[in-house]
């Protein structure tokens, strides 16, 4: 029993899971303290948890690469939002319709890219 659990906790998957759990716990500690609960809820501290869960990767390189691509995506999204706002001159119905058009174009591109990533993921025999 102890030998099996020691092998499990030495695996890279278990170590990543423990790191992710501890990072999530560290980010949510203010929610459980009476002095900081109001601050945590007022400033939407739950986003700390979401960011940790979505942003962590098993390796440092993957985390940094993911961070860089998320920053690029944020800038591109902001530029698209500004373009939509100024193209339709701030008219709300136009913003809604044009935002859907721009979003559908971006989502289509992301789905194609994620399919390619998944394809290369399956090519690695260690993962199948």
- What's the main sheet like? none
Helix content: over 70%
Order of helices and strands: HHHHHH
Q: What is the strand tally?
A: 0
The domain count comes to 2
Average pLDDT = 76
Number of helices in the DSSP assignment: 6
Give the termini separation.
28 Å
Structural class: mainly alpha
Radius of gyration: 21 Å
Which outline best applies? elongated
* Low-confidence parts: none
Estimated share of beta-strand residues: under 5%
Explain what you see:
This protein is mainly alpha-helical and 128 residues long. It has helices at 2-10, 12-32, 37-42, 46-55, 60-87, 92-123.
Task: List descriptors.
single chain, 128 residues, mainly alpha
Q: What topology emerges from the helices and strands here?
A:
Blueprint: H1 2-10, H2 12-32, H3 37-42, H4 46-55, H5 60-87, H6 92-123
Summarize this, please?
With 128 residues, the chain is mainly alpha-helical.
């Amino acid at each position: 029993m102890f030998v099996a659990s020691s092998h499990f906790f030495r695996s890279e998957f278990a170590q990543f899971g423990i790191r992710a759990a501890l990072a999530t716990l560290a980010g949510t500690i203010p929610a459980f303290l009476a002095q900081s609960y109001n601050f945590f809820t007022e400033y939407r501290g739950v986003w700390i948890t979401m960011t940790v869960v979505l942003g962590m990767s098993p390796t440092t390189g993957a985390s940094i690469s993911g961070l860089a691509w998320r920053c690029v995506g944020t800038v591109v999204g902001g530029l698209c939002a500004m373009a939509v706002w100024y193209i339709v001159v701030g008219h709300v119905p136009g913003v809604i319709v044009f935002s859907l058009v721009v979003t559908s174009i971006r989502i289509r591109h992301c789905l194609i890219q994620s399919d390619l990533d998944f394809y290369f993921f399956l090519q690695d025999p260690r993962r199948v």
